[in-house]
Amino acid sequence: MVLKLYAGARVSGGSAVVALVLALKKIPYEYILVDMANKENKSAEHLKRHPYGQIPVLDDDGFILYETRAICKYLENKFPGQGMRLAPAMTDVKGQALFDQAASVEVADFYRPMLKVVQEVVFNKMMGRPTNQANLDDGLKDFGSKLDVYEQLLAKQKYTAGNELSLVDLYHLTYAPSLEPAGVNILQSESRPNVKRWWNELIGLPAWVQLKGEGYKHVAGLAAGTTTGV
């Protein structure tokens, strides 16, 4: 049975990251639209899949899984030899420990401060609310201080969990790509050349560019091998 990915119409958030992993690992899947605008995510049917009424959700022949990072790790563990390897082998104890360390850092020291900024410059605008400048300034200061540490780490290694691209790097692609279109270029600052180099590589991944440009349906076909370009 082909995997089913329940996601919204917009290529963003965790759904986009899961779709990217599916494409990089060349895993066939069916894209099923959850109409967020009409609150389909809060329907009784969807709440059976995700008790919090969110996306993404993965259905693997009746095995239902939600939460982006859990889905991505599941895909890597189930298909370790397919497409691109995106995590250390389970037998690599130290590699797994460094992967888990980097994954924890991504949540605590990137995602959370980044989301404060996205809330002000992206989400508030989408909801028709004004930007709270004090909150934005505080968010930029906090996020910038975390990126200063990223700069030090990425000066010593190519990616966040070592010298190989991994799921942890891809986790950073939830909402951070929306910052530059909103006029916040903190991830491409010349003052942090290693962060800039790393970030430009992530957003320049061919599979990511195609996903953003052509949507989930295209990448579902890409994963299944009906198109090329990953």
From TrEMBL:
It is an enzyme of class 2 (transferase). It comes from the Eukaryota. Residues 92-222 form the GST C-terminal domain. InterPro entries: Glutathione-S-Trfase_C-like, Glutathione-S-Trfase_C_sf, Glutathione_S-Trfase, Glutathione_S-Trfase_N, GST_C, Thioredoxin-like_sf. PANTHER family: GLUTATHIONE S-TRANSFERASE RHO (PTHR43900). PROSITE patterns: GST_CTER, GST_NTER. Residues 2-83 form the GST N-terminal domain. It catalyses: RX + glutathione = an S-substituted glutathione + a halide anion + H(+). Its EC number is 2.5.1.18. This is glutathione transferase. It holds the Pfam family GST_N. Keywords: Transferase. Belongs to the GST superfamily.
